[in-house]
Write a structure and sequence with these properties.
The protein is α+β, with helices and mostly antiparallel strands. It has six helices and six strands, in the order H-E-H-E-E-H-H-E-H-E-E-H. The strands form two sheets. Strands 1-2-3-4 form a four-stranded mixed sheet. Strands 5-6 form a two-stranded antiparallel ribbon.
Length: about 120
């Protein structure tokens, strides 16, 4: 068993819901991340992914003015650090998303991508 804690990225970009999609895109590009977690204090409100940025761009809305809370996926699924990567992969594939915040007791600890969990599976073989 490979737990998420072993493969997660501990660097996670977080932004407030009133930040712009443009701010999020800049942060994702600068850090090489595929998502931003939208927070209010410690509370996770949503997640904005590359797909969401593309949807916002396709709408022709001004991304410098478009707020994250309009384009984010609200109340994202989360996982605990001890969850097996196999279970995380199954969840992500069945629900159609590629990024999963890892939390413990309400604290954001990291992020795993579908690539992370599938790479762990391949490495076990």
């Amino acid at each position: 068993m490979v737990a998420l804690a072993e493969v997660m990225t501990t660097e996670v970009v977080t932004l407030e819901p009133d930040a712009s999609v443009s701010d999020a895109a800049r942060a994702m590009v600068a850090g090489g991340f595929g998502s931003v977690v939208v927070v209010q204090g410690r509370m996770i409100l949503g997640i904005l992914t590359e797909r969401d940025v593309l949807r916002a761009a396709a709408s022709e809305e001004d991304l410098r003015a478009a707020r994250l809370d309009k384009w984010m996926t609200p109340d994202p699924d989360t996982a605990i650090p001890g969850l097996d990567t196999e279970d995380a992969a199954a969840t992500m594939l069945s629900r159609g998303f590629r990024h999963l915040p890892v939390v413990d007791g309400g604290d954001l600890l990291g992020m795993v991508s579908l690539r992370d969990v599938l790479s762990a599976r391949i490495a076990r073989r």
